[in-house]
Every structure is written in C-alpha cells, then in structure tokens.
C-alpha cells in the first residue's frame, strides 16, 4: 500500500527551484527523481501513442497549414539529433508593431503548428512530459511579407510541415512556425535567415 502511495505521489512533474548556485538541483519527472548526485527510478506505466498516416496523401494543405508528415519516415533514426521548432517573424512588423503583439504572433503560430500536428510521432516526443522542460525553438526573422511568403513556398516545396499564421481580420501573414523536426532535417531551409534580435 505504501509503494502505491509513493509511486502515485511522483506522477505529477514539478521542478524545485535552486536556492543557491551550490545547491543541487532536484527535478521530479513522472516516476524518476534526479539530482546532481544520483537517479532513483520507480516502477511506472508509459503511455504509447500510435498514429495512422495515409501514404497516398503526401502533402495536404488545410488553410495555411502545410502537412508533409509522410516525409518524416527517417526523422527519428538518430536519437542524438535535437528536435527543434523553427519560428520566423517579420522584421518590418517588429519595427512597427508593439513588441507584445509580435511575440503574440509567434505564440499563435507555434501553438497552431503543434496542435495541427499533434498526432505526429516527433511532435508527441517534443511535447512528452519527460521532454516538456527542454524544448528547443529557434526564432528567426525575414524582412517582410514577400520574404515570408517565399519562405512558406520554399518549405512547401521541400516537404516541411508548417503553419503560416495569418492575422485576422486584416489577413496579414505575420509568422511561420514549423512542426517539431530533428534539426538536421530542417536547418538547411533556414541557414540564410538571421536570428531574431
């Protein structure tokens, strides 16, 4: 009975804050306790996710969402390849809109891309409770609307699933966010863009 109480107590992830630089960091994740000195694992049940994809539908566009998930067959082969989500904002909007409004556009696009591809195995890995505190995003910028639309077209042609966020009711393209991908698979599409500063 006591073991059931102990294992149930550690199912909810939370992180304790570091009180000083010398204090060890303790993180509770599901059924694992990690500190800088040791790791303790408890018995637990893992959720398994399966996804069904149609091989006849290689690329589907729904509104401004481009789904190229059939191109992800080799994406999980290298476990050392970091999974990353790219977010691309427009410099002209950064210079003319309030900062909060531009950040909101990036948030909208990022969440929409994650939700649109929520059944994708790489997205499930990216959002898994064991990885949720170590997400990787790269935020880049393009000059304006023309470059944003060109990038979206380039990603479509390259088979990269993404969301082009259109601010409504103005119908202005403000941001692109990819679904999560292994960095080696998508970094070449973004190598000429600047980091957003």
From TrEMBL:
Entries under SUPFAM superfamilies matching the protein: Peptidyl-tRNA hydrolase II
Key words of the record: Hydrolase
Enzymatic reactions: an N-acyl-L-alpha-aminoacyl-tRNA + H2O = an N-acyl-L-amino acid + a tRNA + H(+)
An MF annotation (GO) of this entry: hydrolase activity
Chain positions covered by the region annotation Disordered: 50-78
Ranges annotated as spanning the membrane: none
EC annotation from Swiss-Prot or TrEMBL: 3.1.1.29
Keyword Hydrolase: yes
Origin superkingdom: Eukaryota
InterPro entries reported in the protein's UniProt record: Pep_tRNA_hydro_II_dom_sf, PTH2, PTRHD1
UniProt-recorded name of the protein: peptidyl-tRNA hydrolase
Organism listed in the record: Camelina sativa
Gene expressing this chain: LOC104769278
């Amino acid at each position: 009975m006591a073991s059931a109480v102990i294992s149930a107590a550690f199912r909810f992830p939370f992180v304790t804050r570091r009180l000083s630089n010398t204090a060890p960091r303790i993180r509770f994740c599901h059924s694992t306790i990690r500190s800088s000195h040791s790791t303790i694992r408890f018995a637990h049940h893992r959720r398994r996710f399966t996804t069904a994809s149609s091989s006849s539908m290689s690329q589907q566009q729904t509104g401004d969402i481009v789904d190229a998930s059939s191109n992800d067959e080799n994406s999980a082969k290298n476990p050392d390849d970091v999974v990353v989500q790219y977010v691309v904002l427009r410099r002209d909007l950064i210079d003319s809109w309030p900062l909060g409004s531009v950040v909101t556009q990036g948030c909208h696009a990022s969440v929409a891309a994650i939700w649109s591809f929520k059944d994708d195995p790489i997205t499930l890995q990216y959002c898994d409770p064991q990885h949720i505190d170590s997400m990787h995003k790269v935020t880049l910028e393009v000059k304006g609307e023309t470059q944003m639309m060109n990038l979206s077209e380039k990603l479509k042609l390259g088979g990269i699933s993404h969301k082009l966020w259109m601010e409504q009711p103005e119908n202005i393209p403000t941001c692109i966010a990819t679904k999560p991908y292994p960095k080696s698979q998508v970094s070449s599409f973004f190598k000429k863009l600047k980091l957003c500063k």
